[in-house]
Specification:
The chain has 289 residues and is α/β, with parallel strands linked by helices. The chain folds into two domains: 202 residues, Vaccinia Virus protein VP39 (Rossmann fold, 3-Layer(aba) Sandwich), CATH 3.40.50; 68 residues, Helicase, Ruva Protein, domain 3, CATH 1.10.8. The strands form two sheets. A seven-stranded mixed β-sheet has the order 4-3-2-5-6-9-7, with helices on both faces. Strands 1-8 form a two-stranded antiparallel sheet. Helix 3 links the parallel strand 2 and strand 3. Helix 6 packs parallel to helix 8. The longest helix has 14 residues. Bound molecules: S-adenosylmethionine (SAM). The site of S-adenosylmethionine has 23 residues, from strand 1, helix 3 and strand 3. S-adenosylmethionine binds next to strand 1, helix 3 and strand 3.
Amino acid sequence: MDDKRLYSPSVTKEVIQKYGFKFSKSLGQNFLIDGNIIDNICIESGITDSDFVLEIGPGIGTLTQSLCERAKKVIAIELDRKLLPILEETLSSYDNVEVVHGDVLKIDLESLLREKFKGEKASVVANLPYYITTPIIMRFLEEKINVEKIVVMVQKEVAYRMKANPGNKDYGALSIAVQYYSDPEIILNVPKNVFMPRPNVDSAVIMLNIHKEPRYSVSDEKLLFQIVKAAFGKRRKTLLNALSSSGLGLTKDEVNKALERCGIDPKRRGETLTISEYVTLTESIAQAK
Ligand code: SAM
């Protein structure tokens, strides 16, 4: 099987039949069956033979094979135990890969990366399980895991939300969280027919270039994201109403004064504020608390 590429649909079918593997919808198992998409992901992510790569959900190893051919070392975290014997076979000719059985949301990522990559910065490259796209990305960003970029296949709609700017209908708490920590760039739009089985949604590959130095300085990150959540939780309301009727514990008068102090019109809606404005507002609200 070594010399046969897994992205060929007939090879994928052959592998899953050999092992009696059944796709699990609940684990988001949609395997790539298109060599061009895989090449594009690898090229656009700019992985070279000095790079360490963390893959989330290798499946039967289709993207993993190409990553192994380009990177110095690949660690692949897979939750589904039934895929482990398959990966052992499909990745047997590569000596720079290690498959780790576990849940990417629970595993101790800091220790894993420190142990396997000896503290060197890594890149995440993955075709993510869509049912947990946002928690996975937010875990890497919020916990400031030592990675320099995250190149991932996600639902198209989620990719556009991550990239959206103020005033755009897709702009929301996810856009702010992602852009607070990184510069997102959509690198590929991907149709449904490059997966087996076909998902119900279109996909896109997004690259998040993590800021080397924090771009925004805020004294209380937790409060910033509470404010963002409150502002978008009541999208139709003005900032004044949304923030004073949220769990922030502030009266209308306090919110009004905090907004005035930083020169933000209380009648504006949360969806019009830039990240810098949210940062300024956070400092102003912190004074009121
Ligand atoms: N990389 C393969 C490909 O492109 O063909 C498979 C991608 S498939 C969309 C997502 C993979 O993530 C599956 O192999 C699934 O078993 C795995 N997975 C699902 N939940 C996971 C979790 N919590 N932690 C690690 N892997 C997970």
